[in-house]
Write a structure and sequence with these properties.
By secondary structure, this protein is mostly beta strands. It is built from one helix and six strands.
């Protein structure tokens, strides 16, 4: 594969995460995470499957986490209209 002149390769974004069940710590790519933006802080969260124990993990996401995840290319589902 050849590179286009003037274009540099961008390293994939990795997010640090931890499993509350098995307590493993690891890095996940944007494709391994899902972000759900609800109408309130209670319904805004991100989720992933722990690569160590296989459990589904769901954690609340504040404004800063939402900003980092969306900026890093994490797939996002909006549960409410922004209009």
């Amino acid at each position: 594969m050849s590179e286009i002149p003037g274009m540099s390769r961008i390293a994939p974004v990795l997010f640090k995460a931890a499993c509350p069940d098995c307590r493993a710590r690891f890095e996940l790519s944007a494709g391994a995470l899902r972000l759900v933006i609800g109408a309130s802080a209670r319904t805004t969260f991100y989720s992933f499957t722990c690569p160590e124990c296989g459990n589904a993990v769901r954690k609340s996401a504040g404004e800063r986490i939402v900003e980092l995840l969306t900026g890093g290319g994490v797939r996002t589902l909006r549960l409410h209209s922004t209009v």
